[in-house]
Write a structure and sequence with these properties.
Blueprint: H1 2-13, H2 15-35, H3 39-67, H4 73-91, H5 95-126, E1 135-140, E2 143-148, E3 157-160, E4 170-174, E5 177-180, H6 182-185, E6 191-193, E7 198-199, E8 204-205, E9 210-213, H7 222-235, H8 239-264, H9 266-269, H10 274-287, H11 291-294, H12 298-310, E10 313-315, H13 318-324, E11 329-332, H14 334-338, E12 344-350, H15 356-367, H16 373-382, E13 390-395, E14 399-404, E15 407-412, H17 414-418, H18 426-437, E16 441-447, E17 450-458, H19 465-474, E18 479-483, H20 488-498, E19 502-504, H21 509-523, E20 526-530, H22 536-541, E21 544-548, H23 554-559, E22 562-564, H24 570-605, H25 611-629
Parallel strand pairs: 11-18, 11-20, 18-19, 20-21, 21-22
Antiparallel strand pairs: 1-2, 1-3, 3-9, 4-7, 4-9, 5-6, 5-8, 10-22, 12-17, 13-14, 14-15, 15-16, 16-17
Helix pairs in contact: 2-3, 2-5, 3-4, 3-5, 4-5, 4-10, 5-12, 5-25, 7-12, 8-10, 10-24, 10-25, 12-24, 12-25, 13-24, 15-16, 24-25
Length: 635
């Protein structure tokens, strides 16, 4: 039973190739029968070759004609082949039936080659889907049980043994190991993971056994989001492809009208015979069809998307791959983007009425309700002896407010806290200015209209940030700016270190939006790189929004057009280079496609090509541009 099943699977996957092979065999038998004078056998083999080789094209062409009321190249090919056969039967010149059959055969071979090329691209993309196992080893009442991934719930505990794939995103609650994350984030070296670290579905566990706790639904894991977005990218046509498709619909009508004119006018204008006229009109239908033009774009962009996914760059659709190559200006958020986002409390300066612990505990009571990296650093520094605030409300880009022990507490930047206090102690202000000049972020804490103190937060710059900025300038990016809600001194210090000379600081989310709009007025195509909720409006407004895949908030990831899955900034330059390569290959393909059409049309009118040669030139150019697009699968 196994072999028949494999045979069915093989024939289903390679049906177009098998149809082309049978068509070729029948064509050869028909030609041989005609050559030795067995006309009856020839008229049996050749129509069979037409049916087997041209069935799919005829079905697709007629479906498009009746359902969409549009002409397409498949139908034009079939009309040209049947026209040649009819002309051969009418004139008794049966070699024309051979010409029509050759047209069908070459068209079938071309379809098989294009199908193979596209399946190769799809396999590269869909390889992501095989990265996660179907089941997970779950601890239930102290015993291990294999459950389908779809049945996992938040809070379940999972055991992952050495050498196994991580089945879903989770937090390590026991164990230590190294994980190979190359398939997900593009990182080439294994990463050490221990208790408290997050691990991602589809990554490969190393030498240690791990116990994980599921902290999000399996459907929300990073790899599942990647798969959904890649599937979406395959179905969405970018603007260039939509333009080509609109052009093809108009172009097909023009070809039909021109073909009809070529059938009737040449005998009266140039004195051609009806046989020559019809034959050249049929050849015209073949060589003028825009198959190569239609194949010039999507194989290229899908290959680029697949290449990006393998390098830890997720393009949500082909349009963004096109746009990233045209970017002239880039705006960066600071915290979590140019910096690691792994901030820590470096210093606490209390006012004379309060202690260091009181300042930290008051701030932690509110920040425990926040997901901001600064808030997490404050909570970590405060320890565990504090009371969670109530009625807590975060004001993006400014601060957070709530009640602790029935007293209202304010935590945030200078401008925010100033609204709720009577005065700032002068000594605290001087200390804060000194810390800000060192590149630290200062968070103020106030209670009952009185400043409790200031907390200095330090954040490490990403080691690759400076090199990446230099590389972007070498790539010809005209303007690089930093936009942040942080204070001006801290922003200037970071910008100077990484080599950015245009800084917009102390911005609210709507202010970031305005900066992006102004950049677009000046540079048209503008990219924004960010990771937080307050970056989401700017990411949405930018021509290309780019989010950090690990550090980024869910809102930023959903809003962005491109995700750097390993949080590695150098991948941004790689994405731009990939976008430019795809743009270059698309242009080359379009030039090749139009060049072939022009040469074949000239050859047809000069009478220097016959129908089979026209088909070879036409289909050859289609296969050529399809294979050319696959070049983007290589780094």
């Amino acid at each position: 039973m196994l072999y028949p099943q494999r045979f069915r699977e093989f024939t289903q996957e390679h049906s177009d190739t098998l149809a082309a092979l049978v068509c070729g065999m029948l064509l050869f038998l028909g030609w041989l029968a005609l050559h030795i004078g067995w006309l009856g056998w020839a008229l049996l083999f050749l129509p069979a070759a037409y049916v087997i080789g041209g069935y799919d094209s005829a079905r697709e062409g007629l479906t498009t004609l009746f359902k969409e009321k549009e002409l397409d190249v498949d139908l034009l090919m079939i009309v040209a082949a049947l026209g040649a056969a009819s002309l051969g039967l009418w004139r008794g010149e049966y070699y024309l039936i051979i010409d029509g059959a050759i047209l069908i055969l070459i068209f079938a071979i071309s379809g098989a080659l294009e199908g193979y090329a596209m399946r190769r691209t799809e396999r590269s993309i869909k390889g992501l889907m095989s990265l996660t196992p179907d089941t997970a080893r779950v601890l239930l009442k102290g015993e291990e049980e294999m459950l389908p991934i779809t049945q996992l719930k938040v809070g379940d505990e999972i055991i992952v043994k050495p050498g196994e794939l991580i089945p879903t995103d989770g937090m390590i609650i026991s164990g230590y190991s190294t994980l190979n994350q190359a398939a997900i984030t593009g990182e080439s070296l294994p990463i050490e993971k221990s208790v408290g670290d997050e691990v991602f579905a589809g990554t490969l566990n190393g030498f240690g056994a791990l116990k994980l706790q599921v902290h999000k639904p399996a459907s929300s894991s990073l790899i599942q989001r990647v798969i959904r977005l890649v599937e979406q990218a395959q179905t969405e046509a970018p603007p260039s492809q939509e333009f080509i498709e609109r052009f093809e619909r108009i172009y097909a009508r023009v070809i039909v009208v021109a073909g009809l004119l070529l059938v009737f006018l040449p005998p009266f204008i140039w004195g051609w015979t009806w046989e020559v006229t019809i034959y050249r009109a049929l050849t015209f239908l073949v060589v003028a069809s825009p198959c190569a033009l239609m194949a010039a774009i999507m194989p290229t962009l899908l290959s680029g998307i697949a290449n990006g996914a393998l390098q830890g760059i997720l393009f949500k659709n082909g349009a963004q791959l096109e746009k990233i190559g045209k970017v002239r200006a880039i705006a960066f958020d600071k915290t979590g983007t140019l910096t690691t986002g792994n901030v820590q409390v470096s210093q606490v300066i209390p006012s004379s009425e309060y202690s260091v612990n009181e300042v930290l505990k008051a701030a932690a009571a509110l920040e425990s309700c926040s997901e901001h990296p600064i808030g997490k650093a404050i909570v970590q520094a405060a320890g565990t002896d504090w009371v969670r605030g109530v009625d807590v409300q975060a004001i993006p880009g400014q601060g957070i407010v709530g009640f602790v022990n029935n007293q209202q507490v304010f935590v945030g930047n200078t401008t925010f806290v100033q609204q709720y206090v009577t005065q700032f102690p002068e000594e605290l202000q001087k200390s804060a200015q000194s810390m800000e000049s060192e590149g630290k972020t200062v968070v103020w804490v106030a209670k009952a209209e009185q400043v409790m103190g200031a907390i200095a937060i330090s954040d490490m710059l990403r080691t690759e940030a400076k090199v990446m900025i230099t590389r972007l300038r070498k790539l010809g990016v005209e303007q690089i700016v930093m936009i942040t809600g942080d204070n001006q001194r801290t922003a200037d210090s970071v910008a100077q270190t990484v080599g950015i000379d245009r800084v917009y600081a102390e911005l609210l989310p709507e202010d970031k939006l305005d900066v992006i709009r102004k950049l677009q007025e000046e540079y048209q195509t503008v990219a924004m790189v960010g990771d937080g909720i307050n970056d989401a409006p700017a990411l949405a407004q930018a021509s290309v929004g780019i989010a950090m895949g690990i550090a980024g908030s869910d809102v930023a990831l959903e809003t962005a057009d491109i995700v750097l899955m390993a949080d590695k900034l150098e991948k941004l330059a790689t994405a731009i280079e990939l976008g430019r390569r795809s743009h270059s290959v698309v242009k080359q393909n379009i030039v090749v496609a139009l060049g072939f059409i022009l040469l074949l049309l000239i050859g047809n009118f000069l009478g220097n090509i016959n129908l089979p040669i026209g088909v070879i030139g036409h289909e050859g150019s289609t296969v050529l541009v399809t294979l050319s697009g696959l070049r983007l699968l290589k780094n």
